[in-house]
Amino acid sequence: MKPAAAEPVRVQAAEAPLDKGQNPVWAVISTALLGGFIWWITGSWVIAVALIWGLLVHEFGHVLAMNRLGMGPARIYIIPFLGGVAKSQRLPQSEWHGVLVSLAGPAFGLLAAIPFFAGFIATGHGAWLLGAAVIAAVNLINLAPAPPLDGSKALGPVLAGIHPMVERVAMMAMGGLVVWWGFTTGRWILAAFLAIALIGHLKRGTWRPDGRPLTRRESVFSVGLFVVTAAACAGVGVAALMPLGNGSLPAALDIAGRYLGMGG
Q1: What confidence score (pLDDT) does residue 181 get?
Q2: Could you confirm whether the keyword Ion transport appears in this record (predicted)?
């Protein structure tokens, strides 16, 4: 009688530990450093508060979407003098989820403008409206289809559905254009941030993220949501700038452009 064969020992791979997040003390210090830097550059504490508050609400929109779509627990990380980024624990299950996460930041980020409209109603001081306009401008510029801004993550999968090379060429061309615009207009932080991102994309072997590609129906919805989000950002910005006069639009765009390298 043959002895019973021993069953093979199965070793289960240990799951990667979850990211514990940024140290709270360091997060507070980083936020204070960033806010103080913006206040020193702009000379306005209202603008500094608007950019910090707008950044946090924008990133929190990404976090909410990540957690809702099973990518959490997501967290916000503050980077001194640069801004913040929302990081998930898991990749999106599909490109559609990636689109929703990318657009959640600018869409939710517009809510940050509400206290600044309230501040203008209470005080009548135009700086509050400029703060609201800067928040809208940051979210609008973030929709530019240039890596790694939110616009590239929302429209990139749609272009990839036509052909992967269409996405690559379009994203690189738009990214190069924004970098050139940033350097030629003195927006050094934005230009350097995007230039580093473009180099990283060129070095990456895999262009598309993991996950199920967009269906045709999802592609249509992606473009529609992108247009609606961009229109909402522009609408909030116009509503804030109208009482201030024509000269406020360049100022809001300039402030937003100089410090957009903060967002992600």
Answers
A1: 76
A2: no
CA gap 248, 32 in Å, rounded? 27
Query: Is the pLDDT score of 41 beyond 70?
Result: yes
Residue 89 dihedral angles phi and psi, to the nearest 5° = -90, -20
Question: Which amino acid, residue 176?
Answer: G
Q: Where are the domains of the chain?
A: 24-262
Per-residue DSSP letter, 263 = -
Tell me the C-alpha distance between 53 and 58, whole Å: 8
Instruction: Report the range of poorest mean pLDDT among 24-33, 72-81, 97-106, 140-149.
Output: 24-33
DSSP H or E stretch at residue 85: strand 83-87
Per-residue pLDDT reduced to its tens digit, 121-160: 998 888 888 889 889 988 998 898 887 789 988 998 998 8
**pLDDT above 70: percentage of residues in the chain:** 75
- Indicate the pTM of the whole model: 0.79
CA-nearest of 249, 11, 223, 256 to 139 is 256
47, 134 in Cβ contact below 8 A? yes
Q: Give the separation between CA 20 and CA 149, rounded to whole angstroms.
A: 25
Among the listed residues 143, 115, 140, the one whose alpha carbon sits nearest the alpha carbon of residue 129: 115
What's the gap between Cα 22 and its chain centre?
18
Sign of the torsion angle spanned by Cα atoms 173, 77, 263, 40: negative
Mapped onto helix, strand or coil, the DSSP state of residue 79 is strand
User: Could you tell me the two tokens for 10?
Assistant: 């199965």
